[in-house]
TrEMBL record:
<dbReference type="InterPro" id="IPR013486">
    <property type="entry name" value="SpoIID/LytB"/>
</dbReference>
<dbReference type="InterPro" id="IPR013693">
    <property type="entry name" value="SpoIID/LytB_N"/>
</dbReference>
<feature type="domain" description="Sporulation stage II protein D amidase enhancer LytB N-terminal">
    <location>
        <begin position="214"/>
        <end position="306"/>
    </location>
</feature>
<dbReference type="GO" id="GO:0030435">
    <property type="term" value="P:sporulation resulting in formation of a cellular spore"/>
</dbReference>
<protein>
    <submittedName>
        <fullName>Stage II sporulation protein D</fullName>
    </submittedName>
</protein>
<dbReference type="InterPro" id="IPR051922">
    <property type="entry name" value="Bact_Sporulation_Assoc"/>
</dbReference>
<dbReference type="Pfam" id="PF08486">
    <property type="entry name" value="SpoIID"/>
</dbReference>
<dbReference type="GO" id="GO:0030288">
    <property type="term" value="C:outer membrane-bounded periplasmic space"/>
</dbReference>
Length: 531
């Protein structure tokens, strides 16, 4: 029988931390359900990008329909880098690569290096790089070639869009000023066409450009469901229960579509999402897992809605007993991001942690953010949320005080979460805890409490090496047993992440207790519906 989250649950436990081809390929795939993912982790503003496949297909996406231009082959793959030199560029264009290539070959017989260049679908020009000539010779070179083979030229400088591609026996210029070409491959891995960029591999299409900058950037364009194949296994452990994987799949899909369509983060960039935690971790085909792919397929198209609109489905690793209200982490109060008890989190995800800071390390942390208050003399906790997270830390220094609030605490001090207790030199040696049972609620010294472990052994609570925890029906509390020496500030905490929305560890625990993915999501996102 499925258990419910309610009623008082009292458990006290002792925890010790221990070449070129003209074959055409028609895809006929529209871009409506696709995402543009900036590959920031390895392929943003870099000097070169190497597609290692031996065959790629060049095409353009025009009016939301991808249309192929030609097939390219190369035994050494395809290397892209900025074409940042000046060129003589033909004023006329031809409709086929071979026609442009024929002109470049004629020029080469005269000792002039030239390349075919793709401008848009069925539009090819001739590009003559000027870096092999002295500037005072430009006019003579232009007079020499202008009008030859029916082509006239103008001089063009670096437009910060143009890219050059080198293959085994040829090079091509991609203008990129009008339309950016995209690349797919006919090379298959286990029946799936996968583009190999070396460090990572990707489904779908790759677009490579400069987008007004010096370096080149790769963007992965692919259907949302295939994008999720490379997201979910990077955000959750694929061996976890299927219902928790499905919950993560729906949350990841909703989050991506919200920031793609409702509240775009990258208005000044050529992509709508990226592959880092600024959007969601995305490793591409390289990380796909059978279990998470099944979870995505079984929830295809489903998202989380509040009042018939999709929401930003924030998620994090572990709450440490209770999720948090949005206003206690950021600023706005959001009804579907309200903290809830999170008591199904399991080991090792809910295992408490310890972080030791010195006065010097606190000073260094503040200095990184241009805050200088001299020598750190003391730290005081000022306010806790109902869920047990520290709201403000007052740092007392020899040259003034400084208050760190909300998530700044976690980020600046490198803490796993804000659900912690602070131990310092003047912390009382005796810990007083709330002890509850079905009849009463008392305050007792932890020194007077005992626990029975799974082997039936009785241990005194204060014999715990670092801390012990108490699990109730609404939260998990930790009580440090450490003492501070030499002015150290010891942060003894629980949880991992900001604490807002879906607890991944909690979803795992709920799934093991029989909850479905819809029940899990609708629990953590208050008042929502999965459909």
């Amino acid at each position: 029988m499925k258990k419910k989250i309610s009623s008082l649950l009292i458990i006290m436990t002792l925890l010790i931390i221990p070449l070129v081809n003209h074959k055409m390929i028609t895809l006929g795939h529209t871009s409506e359900d696709s995402v543009r993912v900036g590959l920031k982790a390895y392929y943003e503003q870099v000097p070169t990008i190497h597609i290692k496949n031996e065959t790629i297909v060049v095409g353009y996406e025009l009016e939301d329909l991808w249309q192929d231009e030609m097939v390219l082959e190369s035994s050494t793959g395809f290397e892209f880098y900025p074409a940042n030199e000046a060129y003589f560029i033909s004023n006329e264009f031809v409709t086929k690569y071979n026609d442009a290539k024929e002109i470049t070959e004629k020029l080469s017989y005269e000792g002039i290096e030239a390349f075919a260049g793709s401008v848009s679908l069925g539009m090819w020009k001739v590009y003559i790089p000027l870096d092999g000539f002295k500037e005072e010779d430009y006019s003579d070179v232009l007079n020499r070639i202008d009008g030859k083979y029916g082509v006239t030229y103008h001089q063009g400088s670096d437009n910060k869009y143009r890219v050059r591609m080198n293959a085994s026996e040829y090079s091509i210029i991609f203008e990129n000023s009008f339309d950016h070409p995209q690349f797919i491959t006919t090379d298959a891995s286990e029946g799936i066409n996968v583009l190999d960029l070396g460090t990572r591999q990707y489904r779908g299409k790759i677009e490579i450009g400069r987008y007004g900058k010096e370096g080149i950037t790769a963007i992965n364009i692919l259907p949302i469901e295939e994008y999720l194949y490379g997201v979910v296994p990077g955000e959750i452990i694929p061996s976890w229960p299927m219902e928790s994987l499905k919950a993560q799949a729906v949350a990841a899909r909703t989050y991506a579509m919200y920031y793609k369509d409702v509240a775009p983060k990258y208005g000044n960039e050529p992509y709508t999402l990226c592959d880092t935690t600024n959007s969601q971790v995305y490793y591409g085909y390289s990380s796909e897992n059978e279990n998470t792919n099944k979870a995505i397929d079984r929830t295809k198209g489903e998202m989380v809605y509040y009042n018939h609109s999709i929401i930003p489905t924030y998620f994090f690793s572990t709450s440490g007993g209770h999720t948090e209200n949005s206003e206690n982490v950021w600023s706005a109060t959001v009804p579907y991001l309200t903290g809830v008890p999170d008591i199904y989190e399991l080991e090792p995800e809910r295992r408490p942690w310890v972080k030791v800071h010195t006065s010097e390390s606190i000073e260094e942390a503040l200095n990184r953010y241009n805050v200088n208050i001299g020598t750190v003399l003391d730290i005081e906790v000022d306010g806790m949320s109902n869920a047990g997270r520290v709201m403000t830390l007052n740092i007392i220094g020899s040259e003034g005080d400084y208050a760190i609030n909300k998530e700044t605490i976690r980020v600046w001090l490198g803490l796993n979460s804000r659900k912690f207790k602070l131990v310092k030199e003047n912390t009382p040696e005796h810990t007083i805890v709330n002890v509850q049972n079905s009849h009463n609620k008392d305050l007792k010294l932890a020194d007077d409490l005992y626990v029975i472990n799974g082997n039936g052994e009785v241990n005194k609570v204060m014999d715990a090496e670092e801390q012990f925890i108490i699990l109730s029906g609404t939260n998990i509390d930790n009580y440090p047993t450490l003492q501070s020496d030499n002015g150290e500030f010891i942060f003894v905490g629980q949880g991992w992440g900001h604490g807002v929305g879906l607890s991944q560890s909690g979803a795992k625990g709920m799934a093991l207790h029989g909850y479905t993915y819809k029940e899990i999501l609708e629990y953590y996102y208050t008042g929502t519906q999965v459909k």
